[in-house]
Amino acid sequence: MREGWINAVILALLAAVPLAAWALDEPFVITLATKVAIFALAGVGLNFVLGFGGLVSFGHAAFFGLGGYAAGILASHAANYEPLMSWPFVLEGSQQMLVIWPVAIGVSALAALVIGALSLRTRGVYFIMVTLAFAQMLYYFAISWPSYGGEDGLSFYVRNGFLGVNTFDPLSFFTICCGLLLMALGLTDVLRRSRFGLALEAARQNPQRLLSVGIRPYGVQLVAFVISGALTGLAGALYADLNRFVSPNMLSWHTSGEIMIFVILGGVARLWGPVAGAGLYILLEHQLGGISDYWQVYLGLLLLVVVIFARGGVIGVLARKQDHD
After folding, report:
1. DSSP characters for 66-107?
2. Dist CA 34 CA 273 (whole Å)
């Protein structure tokens, strides 16, 4: 119950900050809030398998980057009036988010299906390394793909459209991103309370007991991994639209590490943990980045404190504090 109040405060802050920035004519702050919503969505995807399934994936940048490239490639082909393919049928590009999002989700989900089908046959550090290896393979493939910018990345200049909304308006684009984040949080909450969620929790705690009742942990974890990859891919498409640019850096292991940091800072297995973690990360980047080029040192120290003394993350600490009060 107390955690519910904390989540409500986080939601209120997420909505109030961009509204206040809009009233004060501070579009840059709205853009920061949009980054929080997008990074939080990526964290929600990872948290689904890391927090609820106990699967430490260090390759979620693969899905984030694939979603970004799906958006960038479709938008650039539409802008240049060049079809993606002309045989055996014509496949056009698109600058409509309602077309791009399903493609980004589908591509990322398919990649998660392949990666998960292979990596879930391993456990522990081997699972971590296999997921990392797949992400790095895609990273180096993107670098050597000159058709879409290679190492320099791909710019598509025009932000994609959504049902007649002016997506160049910072508050409108934030509203779209925040709406998708809330839908992802709602989906995650429903799934974790469902029979599937209970099976996923059982697969994390005691796979043998789950197998004894006729449910294969491998199948449950694979479905969860695919859902996780799809959500992270959607976040990647939104991030590409925010910057109107996509590059191989979205596929790098640094991105996987950042997504994991959002989850750890906010609280692993906490529904709103990725939102709190992404907000804290962006706040530190904005405030400390202006003081020192090495602001990540302070982030690293904070991460050490959280891992050693506050494993429930920010939300866990606040919830326990309320319990003591």
Report:
1. HHHHHHHHHHHHHHHT--SB-SSS-B----BHHHHHHHHHHH
2. 17
Distance, CA of 227 to CA of 235 (rounded, Å): 13
Are 316 and 4 spatial neighbours (Cβ–Cβ below 8 Å)? no
pLDDT attached to residue 97: 95
CA atoms 81, 85, 87, 88: torsion sign: negative
Give 321's pLDDT tier (boundaries 50, 70, 90): low
Residue the block writes with tokens 């005691």: 206
* 3-state percent breakdown (helix, strand, coil) of the chain, nearest 5: 75, 5, 20
Residue whose entry in the numeric block shows the structure tokens 């504090």: 321
Could you give the CA distance from residue 88 to residue 71 in angstroms, rounded to a whole number?
Answer: 23
Q: Are 108 and 36 in contact (CB under 8 A)?
A: no
Number of domains in the chain: 1
Domain range for 318: 2-324
Q: Supply the pTM of this predicted model.
A: 0.94
CB-based contact 250:299 (threshold 8 Å): no
- State whether residue 124 is helix, strand or coil: coil
Coil, strand or helix: which one is 293? Answer: coil
User: DSSP assignment, residue 194?
Assistant: S
Long-range contacts at 10-18 (CB < 8 A, ≥ 24 apart) = 10/272, 10/275, 10/276, 10/279, 11/272, 11/275, 13/279, 14/178, 14/275, 14/279, 15/178, 18/170, 18/171, 18/174
DSSP line for 238-284: HHHHHHTEE-GGGGSHHHHHHHHHHHHHH-TT-TTHHHHHHHHHHHH
Confidence of residue 296 (pLDDT cuts 50, 70, 90): confident
Q: Are 256 and 266 in contact (CB under 8 A)?
A: no
